[in-house]
Amino acid sequence: MATTRIQVGIIGSGPAGLLLAQLLDKAGISSVILERRDRAYVEGRIRAGVLEQGTVDLLNEAGVGERCAREGMVHKGCYISIQDERFEINFEELTGGKHVVVYGQTEVTKDLINARLACGGDLRFDCENVAIHDIESDKPRLTYLSAGEPHEVVCDFIAGCDGFHGVSRQAMPASLLRVYERVYPFGWLGILAEAPPVMDELIYARHPRGFALYSMRSPKVVRHYIQCLPDTDPEDWPDERVWDELRLRLPKGDQDKLVTGRVFEKSVTPMRSFVAEPMRFGRMFLAGDAAHIVPPTGAKGLNLAASDVHYLRNALVSYYKTNAMDGLDGYSTQALARIWKAQRFSWWMTSMLHNFGPQDDFDSRVRGAELAYVLSSRAGQTSLAENYVGLPF
Ligand code: RFL
Ligand code: PHB
Questions:
Q1: How far apart are CA 237 and CA 225, in angstroms?
Q2: Do 221 and 194 form a contact (C-beta atoms < 8 A)?
Q3: How confident is residue 242, by pLDDT bands cut at 50, 70 and 90?
Q4: Does 299 sit in the ligand 1 pocket, CB within 6 Å?
Q5: Is 14 in the pocket of ligand 1 (CB under 6 A)?
Q6: Of the candidates 3, 317, 220, which has an alpha carbon nearest to the alpha carbon of residue 133?
Q7: In principle, which of 20, 165, 295, 328 could form an S-S bond with 315, CB 3.0–4.6 Å?
Q8: How much is the pLDDT for 358?
Q9: 185-271+358-389 has CATH 1.10.10.10 classification
Q10: What does the pLDDT look like over 35-60, one tens digit per residue?
Q11: Of 15, 75, 184, 319, which is the active-site residue?
Q12: Ligand 2 within 6 A of 223 CB?
């Protein structure tokens, strides 16, 4: 069996695993990434779009921020509509100059993969049956198959960056793991289309027909979502039906601003909130979606993966400098403190903006009143803006 000896073994080449590898590289710490899928699949996955400044800063630190700085679109605020009324939330004014950047996760992933390969970093695609061994020892191991051949990685630490369906969380003893979960009775049908954005900023729309989000990827490509049932088959939504529904959920005064175009991606995302605690077992540390999922309404998933990676990188750097485990011992608690705040924000945005169904009358009135209050109060708007642009880490 081919054996690799390295400092950190990373499972998963999503944003968490790739960013961690590049940041460790800058600190002189060696790592290998084992990814189950092929490069084209990883680079083609359509997901997030909104980056907090803290995430952009980390991309810069990792040496991959150049294209994002050039092509990313700075968003100084967003709009929230309630049926036919639209309100502006001005992030810059409310937070003392902070904003977010719209830059697709697909592009972040491509930039990180290119940087990894350009610096001669070890990134292995098509790794089958990745398995974790000896987690509680000083030399944990990863084994996998590549083109049918067995391989082994012997390392000091394992970073489980393999997303919600990965193997790392599963490798933790069930008796030690506490899981907190909420599954929502709806999903989002998302499209990518060749069309100009509806407005200069994203629009989050609360509507009796259900929530809709009008986002973008560039001045020529939009990313829109509509609330749907979680088991919706995208095949039941021909393009015309999607565009009609998107138009109906906009305020009447904005409906003629929706420009249609060729739809080139359409998929349904179920919505859940999920946290697994702790994020560490022995010498394995979870980061990103492997440990937590947020509903996308707050645009926090990718940004949380970045803040986890920031804390984990700091802890690993401190270990290799001092040989002391304190930083790594504190990682889970430190990361979870920020994760729960983002969970709260994502749940809050989701609950204020979605239609939870007709049987939910009292709660739905309270949720509507909460949104109306937030929009009518500077304190409410400030709270929303402060969380949206990202809490410090
Ligand atoms: P990923 O991206 O899921 O990457 C995990 C990687 O691990 C690989 N893997 C394995 N590799 C080896 N062996 C195994 N056994 C493996 N099992 C899995 C997978 O192939 C994959 O390459 O997790 P990571 O890195 O933690 O990143 C998390 C983000 O991808 C996620 O939180 C965001 O996309 C969430 N999200 C959003 N986040 C934001 O910050 N802003 C947004 O605007 C935003 N919008 C969204 C979103 C997620 C969405 N979907 C589709 C869930 C919008 C949507 C629609
Ligand atoms: C996106 O553009 O994909 C996007 C934007 C904001 C969100 C979620 C997704 O809250």
A1: 12
A2: yes
A3: very high
A4: yes
A5: yes
A6: 3
A7: 328
A8: 79
A9: no
A10: 999 999 999 988 888 999 999 999 99
A11: 75
A12: yes
Whole-number CA gyration radius for the chain = 21
Q: Is 99 in the pocket of ligand 2 (CB under 6 A)?
A: no
Catalytic residue among 296, 310, 319, 331: 296
Residue-level length of the chain: 393
Q: Answer yes or no: are the C-beta atoms of 211 and 353 closer than 8 Å.
A: yes
Catalytic residue among 103, 144, 204, 214: 204
What is the Å distance from ligand 2's center to 261 Cα? 19
Strand order through the sheet with 100-102: 50-51, 100-102, 73-75
Asked if 35 and 184 count as a contact pair (C-beta separation under 8 A), the reply is no
Crossing angle, helix 326-353 and helix 301-322, to 10 degrees? 170
246: burial class by Cβ within 10 Å (0-12, 13-18, 19+)?
A: buried
Question: What are the sequence ranges of the domains in the chain?
Answer: 2-76+100-180+272-348, 185-271+358-389
Q: Which residues face 212 on adjacent strands?
A: 205, 226
Q: Dump the DSSP string for 132-168.
A: EE-TTSSS-EEEEEETTEEEEEE-SEEEE---TTSST
Q: For 2-76+100-180+272-348, CATH number?
A: 3.50.50.60
Residue 261: name the closest of 231, 201, 218 by CA. Answer: 218
- The CA 214 to ligand 2 mean position distance, Å, reads 8
Cα(6)–Cα(63) distance, rounded to whole angstroms?
Answer: 22
Same fold, 2-76+100-180+272-348 and 185-271+358-389: no
Instruction: Of 137, 147, 140, 149, give the one whose Cα is nearest residue 168.
Output: 140
